[in-house]
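Dissemination and training. As part of the outreach component of the grant, students in the summer workshop were shown how a complex can be specified as a set of sequence lines and then modelled as a single object. The example used during the hands-on session is reproduced here so that future cohorts can follow it. Participants entered these lines:
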Amino acid sequence: MATMKNEIDFLLHLADNALIIGHRNSEWCGHGPILEQDIAITNIALDYIGQARNFYQHAAELINQHPIGIDITQSGKDIVLPATEDSLAYLRDVREFKNLLITEIPNGDWAHTTLRLFLLSEFELQLFTQLLQHTDAQVAAIAEKSIKELSYHVKWSQDWVLRLGDGTEESKQRMQAAIEAIWAYTGELFIQPEYATAACLNYAAIQTAWNKKVTAVFEEAGLHIPSKTFVQKGGADGMHTEHLGYILAEMQYLQRAYPNSEW
Amino acid sequence: MVNNTIATNAIWKILETVKDPEVPVLSVVDLGVIRAVALEEQLVTVTITPTYTGCPAMDMISMHIKMALNAAGYQTTIQTILSPAWTTDWITENGKQQLKAYGIAPPVGKSFDQAYLEDIIVPCPQCNSTHTVLVSQFGSTACKALYKCEECKEPFDYFKCH
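and obtained this result:
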């Protein structure tokens, strides 16, 4: 049973990451710097919402198959049964969300947004490549599907890091400021959550590959990694910044105020 | 068994009339999202796979498949599978030609060799010039990129290799 709880928690962790970063990226809809990039970031948001749906659907399936003895929440409340992708996204509280902090911090300017996406999607690309070996065939299938999309997200966001870092004086200064602001949230990427017990996972290997890639791109862009090494952490265990509550308030309002309403 | 094959073929024919709502010249068969058709009595199970995980057209495609088969007297259930993941390699040759005729440049190269991550030359679907430039990795939908032809000056969508 412990293994099943771990798998469900891990699926929720992946789903919450996708939902929250998808929501953040979608905030750019109608506000992008130019039309083509507005479309790009909203398409990326859509990819993430799709990913979130796949992970929530699978988590819901497992929860409904094994409801006894699974307390998947951390605030002591039981999940609404039967679980659905919607109930998992819309009816859990802040403390129950397991997304990484880097997904929930505000968008900031375009440099912050594209840098965050680059740091996160490169991490996910490495993580999902390991998940291809997951013993649960559905997890491996979702990973296989997502990797194709993540490859584009990495390429697109990496181009922006290079373009701004190696651009004008102001764009460089803004990209470097984004690195200073976001860097403290990257350490959490490589802290293996307690529930991430699948045999295929190797966070140290992810970190090595990620470091290599990020260092190479920063070098090409003339950017540098901050010397500060303080790590903001806790998101994967339900301890969040104040920003997540505001996101959920907006995202969950309709389902909370008008339960079970549909399009 | 033979009868069953004939009947299944009839269902594939019907599926060829169901179009991708985003690219109305392309049938769901040519798009390569139909993985299997199974028939038992009058109950059809159609197995489909999404192009992109967040593709909003998938729900509509499922609905249109059901409507087309129901109109022909079949009861239909739709199953979705993710693996093996859909790639542009699943688009038929016929589908690629129809894309081009419609003004959308078909995917260049094969997905399995990761051609989609390289800088590639996409010929203009209007004038066939290879003098084209990428405007954005993401076009009007997630599955397309936006290009511009430097020869005929027309912007065009590229169904990106994926």
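The helical segments of chain B are 2-15, 28-31, 57-71, 93-102. Students were then asked to discuss how this feature might be tested experimentally.
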